[in-house]
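Tutorial, part two.
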Amino acid sequence: MTPPRRQRRYPTEQPPPPPLPLPAPPQQGNGKPERLFVVAGKDGGERAELDLVTLIVASAAPPPSAAPEQAALLRLCTTPLSVAELSAYLNLPFSAMTVLLTDMLTAELVTARAPIVRQSVADRSLLEAVMHGLQRL
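Running the prediction step on this input gives:
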């Protein structure tokens, strides 16, 4: 009995198809990508105390005069999202995101709140009540 012959996916006469092109980054009208200082605006030096886990919630709908990044951020923040998530979704570094969010916080378009911290240790009386309830079953 002879083993089955292994067949190639692509014959050796034809080269494999070329790889798919990568998506192009968003560009301005002149073909060059936007600089971060254009996205972030003028940095006045005063920044809000934001952390990567600070939750951002939109307070209003995007106004017609809002920049595209601000409008996208307001559409994303209908539910609370962290600064790290917003930075990833908008493909902006944390430093540019803090400047953008500081401007939006001063304009009262968004609100920032600290994340909800859960207790690391459960209450002993609650655990005892659960244990006694399970023992009665």
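The first helix runs from residue 36 to 40. In part three we will examine how such features are distributed along the chain.
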